[in-house]
Structure formats: C-alpha cells, structure tokens
Amino acid sequence: MGADAVVGNSQRFGVPLATAVRMPRSRDARVVRPSGAGRIIGVSVDARGHSAYRMALQTREQHIRREKATSNICTAQALLANIAAMYAVFHGPDGLKAIGERIHNMARAVEDALVAHGLRQTNAAYFDTLRIEEANGAAVRKAAAAAGINFRYFEDGAIGIAVDETTTIEDVAIS
Question: By the 8 A CB rule, do 72 and 59 touch?
Fold first, then answer.
C-alpha cells in the first residue's frame, strides 16, 4: 500500500460476522437478555410495523453487580483477540499473506469488471473495499437485495463494496 503502517479492522481475521446466543424469555417484552457475555437485545418496530430485534455488544460489564455479571470485564474483547490469534497461528505467515493477496486480487477483479461496465472506482488506495460512482443506485440496490447481497449506499449516490476471504469469482461476475 506504499505505507509503513496501514490501519484497518480485523473483523474478517477469523472473526465471524454473526454471533449466536440463547434467548431466555423475559417479563419485559421490550428487552431480551441473552445468556452471552455483554449482549443485550432490544426490541423495536421496523418501517413496516413488524417487530425488529437489534443486538448491542458491550465490552465491559462494570455497571452490573458482580454477582449478576455473566462475564469478566473485557471478556468480549479477549474472545475476539483469541479467535484472531488462533486464526493467525492456524494459517501461519505464508497463509495469511496468501489470504490477503487473494482478497486484494478479488477486489481488483471487482474493480476491473465495474470499470469495464463504465463505472468509476474512486478509492486511490484500497485493500478490500471499493467506492463505486456513476452507478444507478436504485437499480443496484434492488438487484443486490434480490440476490441477498449487502452493499453500503452513500448519501451522494456512491456504493461501497467490500470483499473478504469467502468471496468467490462467481460472486464478482457481473453481466
């Protein structure tokens, strides 16, 4: 990337995109307290009037009395650090380099395909995330939703696309 250090997040560094917890019943139907460290589920209503659940992860439980806490302070962060460490140990330096190169090459393939279709990628430097301009945002959003794909839609009409180690060449093929 032409820099001494590059800052990013390690979301994909062996850390899954979702978490599962047991959902005990609660007297208060507006709040569900799952049996996991630092998690609380809030119940809201979506734009269509349906119940919608949202999960917030809390990394500290200092506000909970010691006998009521379900984890130690910072357990959530320690778990993520351990997962990332084991991912690194499992793959080793060469494996991590290969994964990184594959991800970046996949992002370049996405960029090449989109540019070939007349769109413009505006990130001067990138690893796995592209910012695409000059696309029909409404059409892209509709097609992506139908395919079960999530993109980031900027207020200025640009579209953010990120790839990871699970992305395949079939995922990036566009027609």
Answer: no
Query: pLDDT tens digit string along 51-75?
Result: 766 655 555 555 555 555 555 545 5
Q: How confident is the model at residue 42 (pLDDT cuts 50, 70, 90)?
A: low
Residue 26, token pair as written in the block: 């609660």
Which H, E and C letters describe the chain, residue by residue?
CCCCCCCCCCCCCCCCCCCCCCCCCCCCCCEECCCCCCEEEEEEECCCCCEEEEEEECCCCCCCCCCCCCCCCCHHHHHHHHHHHHHHHHHHHHHHHHHHHHHHHHHHHHHHHHHHCCCEECCCCCCCEEEEECCCHHHHHHHHHHHCCCCEECCCCCEEEECCCCCCHHHHCCC
- Residue 59 near residue 74 (C-beta atoms within 8 A): yes
Pairing of strands 159-162, 129-133: antiparallel
Instruction: Give buried/exposed letters for 115-134 (b at 16+ CB in 10 A, else e).
Output: eeeebebeeeebebebbbee
106 and 163 in contact (C-beta within 8 Å)?
yes
Q: Alpha-carbon dihedral of residues 18, 88, 100, 78, nearest 10 degrees?
A: 40
Tokens of residue 14, six digits: 């062996």
